[in-house]
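Course assignment 3, question 2. Fill in each field.
Student: A.L.
Task: Predict the tertiary structure for the chain below.
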Amino acid sequence: MNVIVELRQYTLHPGARDTLVDLFEREFVTGQEAAGITVGGRFRDLDEPDRLVRLRSFPDMAARARALHAFYGGPVWQARREAANATMVDSDDVLLLRGPGFAAPATTGPVVATICHPLDLVAFSDHFERHLRPALTAAGTPAQALHLTEHAENTFPALPVRGGEEVLLWFTAGQGAPRLPDLSLPLESAPQHLRLEPVRGLLRLREQDPEEGV
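Answer field:
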């Protein structure tokens, strides 16, 4: 099933990542779900200690607009936005995608998101399915959750998204970046690899205070 997916990368003030993780896990997961947002994977970037990466999804662009208006105009965000914004240097690094979404359980190990910027998205998508996917599977790092750029207009302009670029991305299990052939011809630049550790903030909070609701 293909849905509208946001991949959001937050650059945070030094030392503030766990503060935002705890706030998000305590308050914003249930708050966003109540507004109609499907909350996907939340990850600490293993190479950037001040970066948090997360995904969320929506059935379509109209539903995205309704859900974001409901959440950001609602009591959960309004009561805690100053605390959340105080952790952030930048929250505008957002890819608007179409794909299945991705939610690695908090009990799994690290994953890698590989982000490619093809010169021709349609041709590279075909190349991926014909050649790269079988090669990744044969190497023991099968591709999961393929996503492509969504070209629809941003229906919630209060939250910017990156525009003017073509993206194809997927996830693989493990800490190491998947081995790829030379892709210099079909891509604008070398693939980007985000090594990500699933957030375990909610589990840790429950261990600290098992009587407290979230």
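Instructor remarks: Residues 201-214 have pLDDT under 50 and may be disordered. Helices lie at 17-34, 61-72, 75-85, 121-138, 201-208.
Grade: pending
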